[in-house]
């Protein structure tokens, strides 16, 4: 996470925390409103080894619990929304935290043995428009210059 803020300010105090209202443990980037774009890439309880991710009850992920802007967000703001921002990680929380609120997040699916992208990031970078979502954008970026991503 690259915010420059303390956990008490950015809100990501741990991978998991206790929610007093629900009485349950919450996975820090779980968000049922936003789903993984790749079908069949949800969390597989049989292969998942990350105990934090096992607590998630949905496959939805987003940066909604990050209460401040990230380095990526500030870079995008400085470039008037034209910066090419994406986070890539083996774990979902690494990719989402680095992509911030305005980037694209890709992470590895143990179930599918491939990289995934979450819908919220694509929608926000396109100002909320659902049209033009590209499922294999990372592969495209690796094959051509970053200027065409």
How would the blueprint of this fold be written?
Layout: H1 7-10, E1 16-19, E2 24-27, H2 51-54, H3 71-78, E3 86-89, H4 92-99, E4 104-109, E5 114-117, H5 119-125, H6 137-143
Account of the 3D structure:
Residues 119-142 have low confidence and may be disordered. It contains 6 helices and 5 strands, in the order H-E-E-H-H-E-H-E-E-H-H. The two termini are 23 Å apart. It has one domain (7-148). By secondary structure, it is of the alpha+beta class.
Compact summary:
The chain has 149 residues and is of the alpha+beta class.
Task: Write down the overall geometry.
Answer: globular
Major sheet details? 3 strands, mixed
Radius of gyration: 15 Å
Placed side by side, the strands forming the largest sheet appear as 3-4-5
How far apart the termini lie comes to 23 Å
Specify the structural class. alpha+beta
Number of strands: 5
The helix/strand order is HEEHHEHEEHH
β-strand percent reads 5-15%
Which features characterize this protein?
globular; 149 residues; two-stranded antiparallel sheet; alpha+beta; 5 strands; 15% strand; single chain
